[in-house]
């Protein structure tokens, strides 16, 4: 029977010590190369999720406002504002110029007008632009006036468009098929 402290062959002793400094450096170098190769793709995935998240929220809010106008039997409006610092939209009662966004991104409305929801997006990552100042949703028919195209864009220049038709329905698309999961505009 062999003794526990018996002399081991040279290969067995080396395997018991673990990694050498050179082996650890090679593993670290390979890991760094992989990390740098994956980082741009990972950042693009994060940017895409931000863009899609903002676009989905806007589409959902438009559908909710349409339903809420009918349920409340009150005209509701979504107004769009853009500045150098941010872009925002405000869901509110009242007229076209009754609500705006302050420099902080909060809604500022006239005395008799009520802001129901405000979404502000800081400039640089995601922005919202519209070809109309606001869209009003009729409480009787759920229709919208005027029709409009709302563009949600990211810093890379990709965009998702929401086209609101006269019936208050939203159709979404992306120019040149730039964002997966959306039809090309």
TrEMBL record:
GO terms for biological process: protein secretion by the type II secretion system. InterPro entries: N_methyl_site, Pilin-like, T2SS_GspH. The chain crosses the membrane at residues 21-42. Pfam families: GspH (PF12019), N_methyl (PF07963). It is found in: Cell inner membrane. Keywords: Cell inner membrane, Cell membrane, Membrane, Methylation, Transmembrane, Transmembrane helix. The keyword Cytoplasm does not apply. GO terms for cellular component: plasma membrane; type II protein secretion system complex. It is a single-pass membrane protein. The keyword Oxidoreductase does not apply. Residues 54-166 form the General secretion pathway GspH domain. Its main location: membrane. Belongs to the GSP H family. This is Type II secretion system protein H.
């Amino acid at each position: 029977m062999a003794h526990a402290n018996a002399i081991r062959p040279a290969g067995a002793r080396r395997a018991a010590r673990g990694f050498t400094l050179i082996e650890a450096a090679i593993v670290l170098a390979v890991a760094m190369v992989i990390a740098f190769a994956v980082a741009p793709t990972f950042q693009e995935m994060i940017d895409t999720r931000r863009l899609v998240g903002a676009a989905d929220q806007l589409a959902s809010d438009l559908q909710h406002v349409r339903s809420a106008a009918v349920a409340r039997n009150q005209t509701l409006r979504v107004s769009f504002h853009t500045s150098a610092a941010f872009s925002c939209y405000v869901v509110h009662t009242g007229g076209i110029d009754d609500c705006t966004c302050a420099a902080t991104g909060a809604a500022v409305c006239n005395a008799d007008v009520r802001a129901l929801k405000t979404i502000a997006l800081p400039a640089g990552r995601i922005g919202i632009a519209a070809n109309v100042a606001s869209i009003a949703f009729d409480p009787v028919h759920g229709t919208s006036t005027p029709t409009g195209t709302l563009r949600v864009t990211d810093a890379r220049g990709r965009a998702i468009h929401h086209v609101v038709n006269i019936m208050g329905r939203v159709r979404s698309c992306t120019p040149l098929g730039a964002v997966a999961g959306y039809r090309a505009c």
